[in-house]
């Protein structure tokens, strides 16, 4: 059990984290929501697709979530505008960021760590004055993720169709974030 005062921090992911990320991405509680069984990556896939320099070319910034000095998860943010492959084609605001994240250990689910991770990521992103809105797109059946985002200040905006199928479109604007800070 984690202490309610423990905070989740984020550090930039490095290539030294790729083997750990590979192992995480193959855990059943992650596979369920991160591409499904048919998308289980090999170590070579992870080394090719998640290398920070490769992600940077796609405007994706990868992070490792830490709790008390130990890695507990992965997070990524990306510029929504021009993200390609059928994602967010109607987006016109260059200040919108999309996010995705996971907790590595199934035993840590349902204990508030996901919310702490999302809040840490949101705060980090809104430290950039160019960021206007943060959005995410959980599966409608991923009720745990939807509740986590709501606890972290995101609001449902409806259902959207993504290349991965239907998703709950959830956002947090800079204005809403700043209201929680004052």
From TrEMBL:
* GO biological process terms held by the UniProt record: response to antibiotic
What keywords appear on the UniProt entry? Answer: Acyltransferase, Antibiotic resistance, Transferase
- Please verify whether the record's keywords include Hydrolase: no
Fetch the CDD domains from UniProt.
NAT_SF
What stretch or stretches form a coiled coil here?
none
What's one GO MF term for it?
A: aminoglycoside 6'-N-acetyltransferase activity
Reaction(s) catalysed by this chain, per the record, are: kanamycin B + acetyl-CoA = N(6')-acetylkanamycin B + CoA + H(+)
UniProt keyword Membrane present: no
This entry's Enzyme Commission designation comes to 2.3.1.82
Residues of the N-acetyltransferase domain? 8-175
Which NCBIfam families does UniProt cross-reference here? AAC_6p_Ib, AAC_6p_set_A, N6_acetyl_AAC6
Q: How does it assemble?
A: Homodimer.
Official protein name in the record: Aminoglycoside N(6')-acetyltransferase type 1
């Amino acid at each position: 059990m984690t202490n309610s005062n423990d905070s989740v921090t984020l550090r930039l992911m490095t290539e030294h984290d790729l083997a750990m990320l590979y192992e995480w991405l193959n855990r059943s509680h992650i596979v369920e929501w991160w591409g499904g069984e048919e998308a289980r990556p090999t170590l070579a896939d992870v080394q090719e697709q998640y290398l920070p320099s490769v992600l940077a070319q796609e405007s994706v910034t990868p992070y490792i979530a830490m709790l008390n000095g130990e890695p507990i998860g992965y997070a990524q943010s990306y510029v929504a505008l021009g993200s390609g492959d059928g994602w967010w084609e109607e987006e016109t605001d260059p200040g919108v960021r999309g996010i995705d994240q996971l907790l590595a250990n199934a035993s840590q689910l349902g204990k508030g760590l996901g919310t702490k991770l999302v809040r840490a990521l949101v705060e980090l992103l809104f430290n950039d004055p160019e960021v206007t809105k943060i959005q995410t797109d959980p599966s409608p059946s991923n009720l745990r993720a939807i509740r986590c985002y709501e606890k972290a200040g995101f609001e449902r905006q409806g259902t959207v169709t993504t290349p991965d199928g239907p998703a709950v479109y959830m956002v947090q604007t800079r204005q809403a974030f700043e209201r929680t800070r004052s």
